[in-house]
From TrEMBL:
<dbReference type="GO" id="GO:0046872">
    <property type="term" value="F:metal ion binding"/>
</dbReference>
<keyword id="KW-0540">Nuclease</keyword>
<keyword id="KW-0378">Hydrolase</keyword>
<dbReference type="InterPro" id="IPR045249">
    <property type="entry name" value="HARBI1-like"/>
</dbReference>
<comment type="similarity">
    <text>Belongs to the HARBI1 family.</text>
</comment>
<dbReference type="GO" id="GO:0005634">
    <property type="term" value="C:nucleus"/>
</dbReference>
<protein>
    <recommendedName>
        <fullName>DDE Tnp4 domain-containing protein</fullName>
    </recommendedName>
</protein>
<keyword id="KW-0479">Metal-binding</keyword>
<feature type="domain" description="DDE Tnp4">
    <location>
        <begin position="144"/>
        <end position="297"/>
    </location>
</feature>
<dbReference type="GO" id="GO:0004518">
    <property type="term" value="F:nuclease activity"/>
</dbReference>
<dbReference type="Pfam" id="PF13359">
    <property type="entry name" value="DDE_Tnp_4"/>
</dbReference>
<dbReference type="GO" id="GO:0016787">
    <property type="term" value="F:hydrolase activity"/>
</dbReference>
<keyword id="KW-0539">Nucleus</keyword>
<dbReference type="InterPro" id="IPR027806">
    <property type="entry name" value="HARBI1_dom"/>
</dbReference>
Amino acid sequence: MKLFFLIVNEQPSQYCVQNRHVPLLAMYVDGQTDLRPDFRLSRSTVAKLIDVLRSPFDHGWGLEVEVLVYLFWLASATSYRVVSRGFSIPRSTVFDIVHRMSDKVLSLKNRTIKFPGLVDIPNIAAGFQRLSGSPALQNVVGSIDGCHIRIKSPGAHAQCYFNRKLFYSIQLQAVCDHQGLFIDIFTGYPGSVHDARVLRNSPLYVQGLYPPEGYCIVGDGGYPCMSRPIALVTPYREPVANMMVARFNRHHAKARSVIERAFGIMKTRWRAIIFKAPEVKPAFATKVTACCTILHNVCLQNGDSMEPSEDALGSDDTGQMQPDLQCGEQIRNRLAAALSAPTHLPPALQEHDYI
């Protein structure tokens, strides 16, 4: 395999020499070893990532090495010193690679995390209808939620990042489709900020970017139920008033659960970087978080999925129900009524007129 060692005549732009005594590089070169334990991506996904990141200007240590170094750092959340020993390269080079690769992966955002086209909307709506188990929710085209990404105490304004679960974090708000692919992300707000406030300051809300007219997204009780500037349907407050409300909440939860699973898969894949709180500043932690969501989509689109662990599936719900807007309640009431309406009447009842 012609990888990141010197081939003067064929690839003059790649001038690094592969050190065959470095196990982390050797397992990539052999073409057989499973890369997921150390790099959290399958071999085919690593190859896909290298391919989409490649440009005519790649040089230095070689793109393959830089991708492997970056993925290993994400997968282990260890110090630059440990990574430098693992790859037998200077610590300063590891620092440069991690920051440079973060920018490169982030450049894929608009190609990887994007709102579906109008031609794709019906398929997504059908997917959420299957998830919910009811045709009444046939206009749902997304699920929204937020989660906390651990960070070290930032020093200045540390209290702003200290969340109600008693650790420092930044917020990640995401919307996903019926397959768990992220179609919108907004990250970087301090952990003490409520989900509803994060939403109100996101481009999704401010610019009314999604969903299209006539459709809605679903979210938990941490968000207000509304129809403008975006149509967002949340569950009824507990305790429920009647069976119609209970039935709606049950089917609503089935549709909404896909975002919790998407977060769970992402946290399981990158559990070290998400749960360990790496020694980076909040601004860079925001960039790394966005990169994790991008890589999540790259993996799913390449068929590289994994089962979320139980601890990664835990909800980051604030526990505070937001007041609903009247226009949002009307949408929810119509959906609840449609969900409880019989799809057909027994022959004996069809003989009567109903007003």
